[in-house]
Specification:
0% strand, 5 helices, 95 residues
Length: 95
């Protein structure tokens, strides 16, 4: 994909999600991020930079009262990285 199509399809949505989270509209942030999580690799950057959006999604789901989504995402994260301290802490909070 070209940079402009990535920015148009993914980048703007990510920006909107960050703003929604900032404005405490956690349900909207969740709705925006959830369908885009599988294509985050398209934005480039480091794993840590892309991981910010995964963490933002989990935080948004938790704050929006969407515990099932947060649990599923955390379980997926822990299955891939069992030693992930942040995920373990968040999983304890959401349970």
């Amino acid at each position: 994909e070209t940079e402009s199509s990535v920015m148009g399809e993914i980048g703007l949505t990510l920006g909107d999600a960050v703003l929604a989270h900032r404005h405490r509209d956690y349900a909207r942030a969740t709705e925006l991020l959830l369908p885009r999580r599988a294509v985050l690799y398209c934005i480039g950057g480091s794993h840590a930079q892309r991981d910010l959006f995964a963490k933002l999604l989990i935080d948004s789901a938790m704050r929006a009262g969407r515990a099932e989504i947060a649990r599923d995402l955390l379980d997926e994260r822990l299955a891939a990285r069992p030693g992930n301290r942040w995920a373990r802490l968040m999983a304890d909070r959401v349970r």
